[in-house]
Design goal:
Distance between the termini: 39 Å
Radius of gyration: 25 Å
CATH topology of the largest domain: Dipeptide-binding Protein, domain 3
Number of helices: 16
CATH class of the largest domain: Alpha Beta
Structural class: alpha+beta
Number of domains: 3
Helix content: 25-40%
Number of strands: 19
CATH superfamily of the largest domain: Dipeptide-binding Protein, Domain 3
CATH architecture of the largest domain: Roll
Strand content: 15-25%
Largest sheet: 7 strands, mixed
Shape: globular
Length: 527
């Protein structure tokens, strides 16, 4: 009898603990909370200063722009968001956007055209030093305003026609302007909130937003919680919360997923894919992302294009792809496979002998005297394997001494911005499915041009292509521009990525897309 009673009590205690464990951090309920791995601490959710995908994956769920991508459309064409409709002239140089009426910020203030003008003024203002300011440089006088040549923003080609109507006048036609208006850098901005809280305006409790979720908790370097916005203008999300973990180590994140503590992990260690690929929770899909290394062209000897090209030609990209064995495609140019102006035949060849000849022409007849080369990358198991393979290839093919160095994402991205090293690793996932989004990174005035390479002919070609409405002529301009990139090698594209991720079977309505927009407003959880 005593033993039975002890067993019953023990069972009840165990059952009670099991039920209790279903409650998540911060009192969130398991049945209404999506648990995702953000992979790192977002550097910021200030949409005029953010440049990385981790920050974007938060901002895209708490805010929206004039337009949004139709994730059910294979071509991902833009559809209305905060703008109900828009129109343009035949030359695409003047655009009119009409806002939805009755859209409320989370503090109850109604959205109006002035909020977009305030946002664009802040983005373009030289004091903001926004890396994405160049996104709007096609607007009349916008680039001059960013450069400080024009002091009065009223001279920039943005005009409020009424409370709900905006007119944008461009220096040159831009047929894909609605695509640009999906991007976080173009989101509206509450100047009054910023003036009240200053640099603390993005903190939970201070920030006001318009998207399907609000920023409820930001437990730095640990967790972030998004809560359903009950005043969202569109269909309200089914989810009550999104709990974002900041687990840098992919192997740890995978263990948490397999232990039932994460619903979605956006990347898995390549070494685990052979074990995982037959599981129903495993997904693999191509994306418009190019993995690459860049050079700081102002650091010797990488100020010499012959040295840059020699390094690139000494690494076999096919070997990198085989080493990862996950379906990546060896890169030719920076524009990825699956996008207009992908140039398979323009690939810089793997040729160690020509590489050595180029280095000899650059003054390095004795490769033992070549300066020690350090490869920098952000902490990630897959990035480490890539760096180690390149390190080994450069040692084998050229005899170079190569060190590799890694840093956590927030520290790393700040370093690239403030004191860019000689050789650095990044990936660029398309913000919109047009080659302009990748090739405009290397414009002289681009804030994302971290190596500070500059070529006037390249700038002219990209700017001409932006204004060209004829697809055939645009392709010809991009062909010439990419030939310059391939010849001067300010960057080394390695491969086009294939996304490998895990998703719990209880998650429904999650729409993977090739530009990696992680949108949660359509997600439901099977009970």
């Amino acid at each position: 009898m005593l033993r039975a009673s002890v067993f019953l009590i023990s069972f009840l205690l165990l059952f009670g603990c099991t039920k209790k464990e279903q409650k998540l951090e911060y009192g969130l309920k398991m049945g209404e909370t999506l648990r995702v791995n953000l992979m790192s601490e977002p550097p910021t959710v200030d949409w005029h200063k953010a440049t990385d995908t981790t920050s974007a994956n938060v901002m895209d769920n708490i805010m929206e722009g004039l337009t949004q991508f139709d994730l059910d459309d294979p071509e991902m064409r833009p559809i209305p968001a905060l703008a109900a409709e828009w129109s343009t002239t035949k030359d695409a140089k003047k655009w009119t956007f009409i806002l939805r009426q009755g859209v409320k910020w989370t503090d109850g203030v109604e959205l109006e055209a002035q909020h977009f003008v305030d946002g664009w003024e802040r983005l373009l203002n030289p004091a903001t030093a926004a890396e994405y300011a160049y996104f709007l440089h096609s607007i009349k006088n916008a680039q001059a305003y960013t450069a400080g040549k024009i002091k009065n923003f009223s001279e920039v080609g943005v005009k409020i026609l009424d409370k709900y109507k905006l007119e944008i006048t461009l220096e040159r036609g831009v047929a894909f302007l609605p695509m640009l208006m999906t991007h976080a850098s173009t989101f509206p901005f509450r100047k009054d909130v910023y003036e009240k809280y200053k640099t603390a305006w993005t903190n939970p409790g201070n920030i006001v937003t318009l998207g399907p979720f609000t920023l409820k908790i930001w437990d730095h370097d640990k967790n972030l919680v998004l809560e359903r916005n009950e005043n969202y203008y569109g269909p309200k999300p089914w989810l009550k919360n999104v709990l974002g973990y900041m687990v840098v180590e992919q192997s740890t994140a995978l263990s948490l997923f397999e232990g039932g503590r994460l619903d979605i992990i956006p990347e898995v260690p390549y070494t685990e894919i052979s074990r995982l690929r037959d599981r129903k929770e495993f997904y693999s899909a191509p994306e418009l992302t190019t993995q690459y290394y860049g050079f700081n062209v102002h650091i010797k000897p990488f100020d010499n294009p012959k040295v840059r090209k020699a390094i690139y030609m000494a690494v076999d990209r096919e070997e990198l792809v085989k080493m990862h064995n996950v379906g990546h495609v060896a890169a030719s140019t920076f524009v990825p496979e699956g996008m207009m102006s992908y140039e398979a035949g323009m690939k810089v060849p793997f040729d160690p002998q020509t590489s050595k000849a180029l280095l000899k022409e650059a003054g390095f007849s004795d490769l033992a005297k070549f300066p020690k080369l350090t490869i920098n990358y952000n902490t990630n198991e897959n990035n480490k394997r890539t760096a180690e393979n390149i390190q080994a290839q450069l040692k084998k093919n050229l005899g170079l001494v190569v060190e590799i160095q890694n840093e956590d994402w927030k520290v790393y991205i700040a370093r690239l911005t403030q004191n860019c090293p000689a050789v650095w690793r990044l990936a660029w996932g398309a913000d919109y499915p047009d080659p302009d989004n990748l090739l405009n990174l290397w414009l002289s005035q681009s804030g994302n041009n971290r190596g500070k390479w500059s070529n006037a002919k390249y700038d002219s070609l990209i700017e001409s292509a932006m204004a060209e409405l004829d697809t055939g002529k645009r392709k010809a301009l991009y062909h010439q521009a990419q030939a310059i990139l391939q010849d001067e090698v300010p960057i080394m594209p390695w491969f086009y990525s294939r996304r490998q991720y895990m998703r719990n079977s209880r998650v429904k309505g999650y729409k993977f897309n090739p530009i990696d927009k992680r949108i949660y407003k359509t997600v439901t959880l099977e009970q």
